[in-house]
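Quick note —
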Amino acid sequence: MMRYLYLSILFIYVKLAFCGGENFSVGGRSAGMAHASVTLSDLWSAHNNQAGLALLKHPIAGIYYENRYLIREMGLSNVAAALPVSKIGTFALSYYRFGSSLFYDSKVGLGYGMKLGEKISGGVQLNHHTIGFGDIYGKRSTVSTELGILAQLTNELSIGAHIYNINRARINNNPNEYLASYIRLGLNYKFSEQVFAVIEVQKDVHNKPLFKAAAEYKPADMLFIRAGISNNPLFNAFGFGLDLKNFKVDLAAAYHQQLGFSPQMSMVYEFAKNNKNKPVE
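Predicted structure written out below.
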C-alpha cells in the first residue's frame, strides 16, 4: 500500500518537474555513476556537458533507455550522434524524450564542442522543447540554450561545469512559468590508469543543492565497473560497461529504498578506422 502511495507522490512530482523542463542526465556510463557526469567526455556529453564533445576523435552514435522504477509510462530515452571535424570541433545531434502519450517531455538539441586551448574545451547547445498533455490539453514548445566547460588542471585533476537554460525560456506566456535552470560543477581525480573518482554538485533556483559522488574502475581492457551515490532523494547506483572495440555496451541500475530499481542501458558504436588511435575517455 505504501508503495502505491509513494508512486502517486512521485508521479505528481515528476509531472511538476518536467512541466518545468527538467533535464536529467543520460547514458549508461553516467547512470552507473549516479549521473555524476559533468566531467566525463563521451557521446552523452551531447546531453550532459557539451564541452566533452571536443575530446572525441571519431564519428559516434548511440541509444539510451531508462525504465524508472519499472514503470513503462516513466520511460526515458535518448538517441545521439556526434561528428568531429578536424581543426573545427565536434558537432552533435540528440533527441531526448520522457513519458507516454498522456504526458511527455521531449527535447531536440544541436550541440557543438571545441578546444579553447591545450587543456580546456567549451561547448554550447541550442534546444527545441515540446511538452504535451495528451489530446485534451495540447502541447507547448520553446527554445533553450546550454553552455559547458571542461578543463584539465593537472595530469590527475580536471574540472567541469555546465549551465542549463541560460536564456530562462518560458513554457508559455505566463511570466512565472519557466523551464528549469541550473548549474552543475564537478571535480574528477584520476588515481591511476584504472581508477578515477568524481564529485559533483547541482543547484537550481528553487531546490536545495544536489550532491553526487562516484567512481569507475577498469579491471581489464574491455571491462569497466562503476558505482555512485546521490542525495535529494538519496539513491545508490551501480553499473558496468563492456568495450568491444568499436562497440560499447553500458548497463546500470539505481535503487531507491521505497520505490525500488530503475534499470538503464546504452549502446554506442564508434566509427573508428584504427582502434590503436582510439581516444581514452
